[in-house]
């Protein structure tokens, strides 16, 4: 195996790194034939499976063609500099090693971990900033304050091998859509005992095969489980799930916990919180920022509010499904924050689609527009993936267009109630409504592009 290689970790693209000796107290992962790799251009290290390593020189041109990012180019420059210096030392020493007397750093290593296709990061507890990865991640960087903060990184207690100690509480999960399916899969993978229910019962079959139990009704799941999560499409579905026939409320007893993960309005959250607690139950809202892919990868960002003790009881669950979580105080705050985030994302996606179509209308290359965009300050995995999918005509849903339009509508209403103008969101909302009229509801949010070409 060559010393300098391309190493691939989880869902992220290959990155140049060199095989190094791991710290003496760091155990090699069981059942994996792998090497300890330090990535160029960063201070990150990881155990990389042998089959995920490729020789640097043999695949250099291939990798450079598929990754044009500035940080990637800086990493490649670091490799070339390293190889040039290594060659010079080899010539000067006539082939003799020069490691004698070399000083080693006592600085704690940043170690990236992979469990199947999930990525877990272990940080030095003294570090306040989020881990700097050699890849662009589709979410904001986080700063965790240690005094008076409402932000908590749920992944801080994740073990070094990427495993999680699951809670001994019985977990229920209602709703196996784009987001819920990935969440349940990760809960099961990390050893939680999960009972599932879905309006379309056939969607439960795969999870039953993976070890989940089947609940016949929402009420039965809530009565059987200590903590019941739900993730459905909109406020009406969330209310029906709790208040409807054989709904969650019928299964709530004193001490039972209900966690609403759907993106809904604050008023719906307040109503559900009141009815759950009126039966002696405990309530937490925990909508998630992300997409189907991030849900599958266990990389969601969880926004929680309500009963703080429920939040703490959900710690291992949040570690399994997300990369970080925030506790935002009283119930309703997470709904407000989630709507604001999705308002920004929806408006941004509509603007990108408008830019792509304006480029085409003025005789400019859409691919060149994207290439320039991805070299500037707005470069991100989100922009690159959405635009490439648009140019390829691929609108397979990662986040439903109808749901982002619903979120825009709720955000605008929230702005009206706060007497705060939201003209950008209102304009974007009209574009999404046109896309829905063109039968794009069940496509990805990037299908808003089609509203501009019809």
UniProtKB/TrEMBL annotation:
Q: Where is the PWWP domain?
A: 1-59
Q: Does the keyword DNA repair apply?
A: no
Report the main location listed first in the record. Answer: nucleus
Matching entries from SUPFAM superfamilies are given as: 6-phosphogluconate dehydrogenase C-terminal domain-like (SSF48179), NAD(P)-binding Rossmann-fold domains (SSF51735), Tudor/PWWP/MBT (SSF63748)
GO molecular function term, any single one: nucleosome binding
Q: Which Pfam families match?
A: NAD_binding_11, NAD_binding_2, PWWP
Q: Which GO terms describe its cellular component?
A: chromatin
Give the family, as the similarity comment puts it: Belongs to the HIBADH-related family. NP60 subfamily.
Provide the protein name: Cytokine-like nuclear factor N-PAC
From what organism does this protein derive? Sparus aurata
